[in-house]
Amino acid sequence: MIGTSPGPNDSSSLGPVKIGLPLWEVFVEILPPPDPGSELAQGSVDSATVPTVMAAPMLEGPAYRDRGTGLVIFGVFQIILGLLTALMIPLVALGAFMSRLAPGGSMRPGQFISGVATYAFLAAALVTLGIGSVRMKRWGRALTLVTSWYWLIMGVLITILLTAMLPVMMRTMLAQARQSAPAGPSPEMSTGVVAVILTVIIIFSAFFLVLVPTAFVIFYSRKDVAETVLRHDPVERWTDRTPLPVLGASVALFTGAMYMLLVGLTTPMFPFFGRYLTGIPAAACFVGLALVDVYLAIALFRLKSSGWWIAIMVAPVRMLSMILTYRRADLMQAYSKVGISDEQVKMLNANPMFRGHILLWWSLISVVLFFGYLLWLKRYFKETASAQSNALTAQIS
Questions:
Q1: Residue 369: CB partners within 8 Å, gap ≥ 6?
Q2: Residues with Cβ < 8 Å from 192, sequence gap 6 or more?
Q3: CA distance 31 to 14
Q4: Which residues, including other chains, have CB under 8 Å from residue 155's CB and lie 6 or more apart?
Q5: DSSP code for 240
Q6: Which of 110, 338, 100, 68 has the alpha carbon at shortest distance from 219?
Q7: 138-180 helix and 244-266 helix, angle to the nearest 10 degrees
Q8: What is the C-alpha separation between 170 and 351, in angstroms, rounded?
Q9: 146: which residues sit within 8 A by CB, 6+ positions away?
Q10: Three-state secondary structure call for residue 269
């Protein structure tokens, strides 16, 4: 068990640590016992010359470093991030108002609802996890760790995508602006401004999408952090009932289910084996898939092998449907069917990320990675009693 103090009879340790003893007393304490035939063992040595080490106070120090201060600092930082995320909600409302003045048409109600709901969910999650970390709760540490891994993986993918595609997008936008306004800014000035903007965006993305979650993963993965929350929160929590890797998959499936419900209600456009379904059929598919993911999240959390097998069978079907649809269907035509104006469709079609299905193929990469992760989780679904009883041990190992 990680964090257990070595006992005085443990052959791999030097015995309990004495706090406040002189160096020579500690040295004498760790010496091997005298030979039975030696003068020391027979008592021929003057007792005044032998320090009475065992009479010293036996004070044992903690076998781990308390990370309570770090938990509070990281928790406060999460709360701040949550509050900053909540500030995006009025910005979405401002964007919806300003879009009425734009030539491309106003923002659809579904887009507005989707943006507000997404930022509200992220803000609530960050604030809740921050409070759990400040209070040093087991569930706060467990959920922060698994969500930070998800945050890091997706952040790396998004940062790579932005780094590769933003220059192309900016050049396309500049070319369109020059065609519409030949007397605009000089190409040299525009190139310099674009370079600065791209650099700021990439650095900003790398910091919040890569460096910040990396710091969270490193800190909350520490064994002394796990031991600290175990000592400060001795009551077993629901997150202790399953290993952390399985908890991560369960949280990802549940979060994905909530997102599919949101998309099904706001932008019903479902890739279905070579064509895009829209309207009520698409919404029904999103709801059905969300229900499947909720079931899988619960089944995986309970370490049911049947849930793992269903997840393994469902994932390739999803990937096949996405691949066939991305290769054959017309994305812009599907967008026009869900209420997006012709001007907005033209703008999307001019964007290289949409014109080449790059965003959609990038989402397929995330599905492939998650499928590989599910395969790796097979080790936790061997129906043995030891796997169930050692769930808490797996949490901090």
A1: 153
A2: none
A3: 9
A4: 205, 208, 209, 210, 213
A5: G
A6: 68
A7: 40
A8: 9
A9: 244, 247, 248, 251
A10: strand
Q: Which helix (H) or strand (E) segment is 68 a member of?
A: helix 68-86
Q: How far, in Å, CA of 260 to CA of 265, rounded? A: 9
Tokens standing for 43? Answer: 């008592």
Cα-Cα-Cα-Cα torsion 244, 248, 250, 256, nearest 10 degrees, comes to 170
User: Would you give per-residue pLDDT tens digits along the chain (397 residues)?
Assistant: 444 444 444 444 444 444 444 443 443 344 445 454 444 344 444 444 444 444 434 334 456 788 999 999 999 999 999 999 999 999 888 887 777 776 556 677 778 888 899 999 999 999 999 999 999 999 999 999 999 999 999 999 888 888 877 777 777 666 665 665 555 444 555 667 777 888 888 898 899 999 999 999 999 999 999 999 999 999 999 999 999 999 999 999 999 999 999 988 888 889 899 888 888 999 999 999 999 999 999 999 999 999 999 999 999 999 899 888 888 877 777 777 777 767 777 777 766 666 656 777 777 888 889 999 999 999 998 754 444 455 555 555 5
- Closest residue by Cα to residue 214 from 157, 151, 170, 297: 151
Residue located via tokens 């009479």: 55
Location of structure tokens 């923002």? 107
The pair of structure tokens assigned to 26 is: 């500690």
Read off the tokens for 54.
């065992």
CA distance 171 to 222: 45
Task: Enumerate the β-bridge partners of residue 272.
Answer: 275
Q: Where are the domains of the chain?
A: 23-55, 242-397
C-alpha separations of 377 from 13, 145, 185, 229, 264 in Å: 35, 17, 56, 25, 29
Burial of 25 (0-12, 13-18, 19+ CB in 10 A): middle
| Residue bearing tokens 């933003």 | 166
Tokens representing 133 are 């970390």
- Joined together, the tokens standing for residue 109 give 């109600």
Q: Are 269 and 276 in contact (CB under 8 A)?
A: yes
Residue type, 59: L
Distances (CA, A) of 159 to 23, 152, 154, 361: 53, 10, 9, 15
Q: How many residues does the chain have?
A: 397
Structure token digits, residue 338? 């869900």
Angle at which helices 109-134 and 88-98 pack, to 10 degrees?
Answer: 170
Other beta carbons within 10 angstroms of residue 392's beta carbon come to 18
